[in-house]
Amino acid sequence: MNVTIPVLAFIAKLLSGATVRWIDSHPDTCQRVYFANHTSHLDALVLWSSLPRQVRELTRPVAAKDYWEKGPIRRYMARMFNAILIDRQEIKVHQSPVDAMITEIGTRYSLIVFPEGGRSGGQDLGEFKSGLYYLAKKRPDLELVPVYIDNLNRVLPRGEFLPVPLLSCITIGPPIFLENKEPKIQFLTRARDAVRNLKDR
After folding, report:
1. Nearest to 110 by CA among 128, 91, 72, 84
2. I need a labelling partner for 180 at 20 to 30 A (CA). Which of 69, 75, 117, 151 fits?
3. Do the beta carbons of residue 136 and residue 25 sit within 8 Å?
4. Percent of the chain whose predicted confidence (pLDDT) is above 70
């Protein structure tokens, strides 16, 4: 298999039919954390492929190692979009996923993360896990950009392997930051609301 990155991005956009809207925000190559709702295994790939090329080249999706290392095609695709694969089964105290992400991005790359952890049912967002908070706390310079992904759970329904081409929409909102001394729960609620509020924009 020899699929180039532009071809992979084109295939992902073709399958999802994704349109992208930037609301009070715009593409930028500065370091960011794009944080989105999670309803499909295609979320990371489609969001990544929907970014402009110069932004995409500097953006690394965070994805589940147990899913993307299953089989040669998934492993190849994960390499192609330069994913940071996180082991959800063996999380070590002295080697946390957040520390791994910070090491991987250095001072160059941006991230795509899904703070719910697992996939939600698509009706409403699940509670955000604490990883986004600790990313913001350890790297306060990173712009935290909310993203709402609509309809991808129907492009690749849970339990299915082959995607069904449908129209989906990706809405990207204005950056937020962790406020000084902001409590974790308050920040995670605010971040979750920032994604939810994009649904009807």
Report:
1. 84
2. 117
3. no
4. 76
Q: How many domains does the chain have?
A: 1
- The encoded tokens of residue 166 equal 């449908």
Q: How big is the chain by its Cα radius of gyration, in Å?
A: 16
Q: What CA–CA distance (Å, rounded) separates 46 from 16?
A: 7
Q: What is the pLDDT of residue 167?
A: 61
SS3 137: helix
Q: Is the dihedral of CA 55, 57, 59, 63 positive or negative?
A: positive
For residue 143, the domain's CATH number is 3.40.1130.10
Each residue of 108-167: pLDDT tens digit? Answer: 999 999 999 776 655 678 899 999 999 999 999 999 999 998 865 554 445 544 444 456
Rounded CA separation 17/163 (Å) = 11
β-pair partners for 20: 170
pTM for the model stands at 0.85
For residue 113, give the nearest of 83, 87, 92 by alpha carbon: 83
Residue 122's domain spans which residues? 5-196
Q: Are 115 and 132 in contact (CB under 8 A)?
A: yes
